[in-house]
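Operator note (shift B, R.M.): manual run for Biotin transporter requested after the automated queue skipped it. Running by hand, logging everything below so the morning shift can see what happened. Input copied straight from the record, untouched. If output looks odd, do not overwrite the archive copy; leave it for review.
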Amino acid sequence: MTAAPRDTSATLGRVAVFAALIIVLGTVVVPLPGGVPITGQTLGVMLAGLILGPRIAPLSIALVLALAALGLPVLAGGRGGLGVFVGPTVGYMIGWIVGVVVIGLLMRTGRFTWWRTALAALVGGVAVVYAFGIPVQALVTGVPIDLTALSSLAFLPGDLIKVTAATLVAVALRRAYPRAFPDRRIPTTPVPA
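Run finished. Output pasted below as returned.
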């Protein structure tokens, strides 16, 4: 019976740490025309999915979004309040939730390798987030979806850098501290290059 509270405390701690990481990375902002800035927050989203997995990572995203809904300035550029949930970035925020689940599920499909890590971050952290963000941005801004998708190419170089950074951090953490990853079924042998 004593294991459950400790596990719950550890889980809550992980949720809070990754929510804080996502918030801090939101201070890295490059404004772009169209209302959707380039931010560091998606790096935090990728790391949450890679490290926390498909069950716990969405809780970190939900915590960030709940704090934003309460009006706290936790989103990129210090934004918060209910207004952000009707703006051009809302689709991307929904994509974060689905994206971390996809990342976590892809990481559970086999052995932990650097290429699986990079693929999971790319698919869940970029493709899934764009799949939700671009249509909603087009709807909110009234810009045709093809033009919105074209303008979103401005995000791609930065997102590829974030995929690389997330992969490097996750692989290094897996080598140095495998217990950070909640899924104990995956062997903790050294990560093949």
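Quick read of the result: The radius of gyration is 17 Å. The first helix runs from residue 3 to 25.
Leaving this for review. - R.M.
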